[in-house]
C-alpha cells in the first residue's frame, strides 16, 4: 500500500539514501491479513442447520460438503477477541466403529473363546461417507474447534472421534485440547444455544472412554456368544431354519421379557367373577352407587348369598366417615424409556418411530434432548415459554 510520511511521498530507495534530492517520499507498506477460522461440528446435518441459523442470526451462507451428505454453513463473527469466520458442519452419528482385525472374522478358523482377548481396531462407521477425510478437509487452516455433539456419553465419544479426524490438518498448538471446546445444551432454542456458546467447556474424556469400554464389551460378548450358539444349534438341529442366532447383552434379556409376556398372554385363561353394587337414594333425593368392600368374588353361590342379605333392606345407615386428601403432583419430564412407553401405549407407535419423531422435534426446538435417563427438566428450560410457543400445534 502507499501512504504519507511527515507530509512527503517517496519510495523505499529514496528513504535509504537521504542524499538523493527530492521533496517527496513514497512509502510502500506490504502486509498480509489472514482471517481466523473456527470449525464447529454437530451430530447430524439437520442439527447443524438449526445451530447455524441461531448463532448467525439467520445470516449465513451454505454449501454442500465434499462427501455429498453434510452441509457447511459459514458466517462472520467474533471469537477469542478476534474477528473470525465460523464454519458449522456435522457428522452423521459415530465416525468410527470397533471391529476385530481381519483374521478373526473367519468363523471356521477362530474359536469363539479367542474373541475375548484378540486384537481390535477402529474402522470407519460408514466408509461411503468418507467422514474422516471430509472433517480433515474442512478443518484445514482452522485455529479452533467447537464441538456441538449431543450431550450424552455417546456424544462425548463422538467428540474425540472428531478430534482425531481433524487434529492433523488444524493449526494447532503443542497441545490440541488448548483449542478444542465443548458446547453443553439440552434444547435447540435461541436462549439455550447462545448461552452454551458463551459458556464453552471441554469434552469429557472419561465419559468417552466409558463408551469405548461398552463398545468393546458388546463386540466381544456379542460376537463370541453369537458364533458359539449359532454353530452349536446348527450342529444339534440339522433342520434349523436360522443361519444366524444372535446374542446381545441387552438384546437377549429384552427378548426374554418379550417371550415371557407373549407366553403369559397365550396361556391366559379368563375366569368369571361377580360383584355387588347397590343403588341408593338419600332423604334429600340424591342418588349414589355403593361398591362392595370385597370388590369381587369368584364363587357365584357366595355372591348370591350376600345379594339375598341386602335385597330386603330398605334403609341404610352411615356408620363411619373417612376423609382423605389427595395431591396431584406436577407432571414429570419423560426419560427415554418412559417416552417410548407412553408413545406406544397412548399413540400406538413403535419405539423406533417414537424416537424418530422425538429427534425431529428436538432439532426443531420444540422439546429438550430426548435421549436422557433423568426425569428432571433442565434448569435452563423455560416451562412457560415452551407451551406458549407450541400452542398452535396442540390439539
UniProtKB/TrEMBL annotation:
This is DNA topoisomerase. Its EC number is 5.6.2.1. It comes from Rhodnius prolixus. It is an enzyme of class 5 (isomerase). It catalyses: ATP-independent breakage of single-stranded DNA, followed by passage and rejoining. InterPro entries: Topo_IA, Topo_IA_2, Topo_IA_AS, Topo_IA_cen, Topo_IA_cen_sub1, Topo_IA_cen_sub3, Topo_IA_core_domain, TOPRIM_dom. Introduces a single-strand break via transesterification at a target site in duplex DNA. Releases the supercoiling and torsional tension of DNA introduced during the DNA replication and transcription by transiently cleaving and rejoining one strand of the DNA duplex. The scissile phosphodiester is attacked by the catalytic tyrosine of the enzyme, resulting in the formation of a DNA-(5'-phosphotyrosyl)-enzyme intermediate and the expulsion of a 3'-OH DNA strand. GO terms for molecular function: DNA binding; DNA topoisomerase type I (single strand cut, ATP-independent) activity. Signal peptide: none annotated. One of its GO terms (cellular component) is nucleus. GO terms for biological process: DNA recombination; DNA repair; DNA topological change. It comes from the Eukaryota. Residues 204-395 form the Topo IA-type catalytic domain. The keyword Transport does not apply. Keywords: DNA-binding, Isomerase, Topoisomerase. Residues 37-184 form the Toprim domain. Belongs to the type IA topoisomerase family.
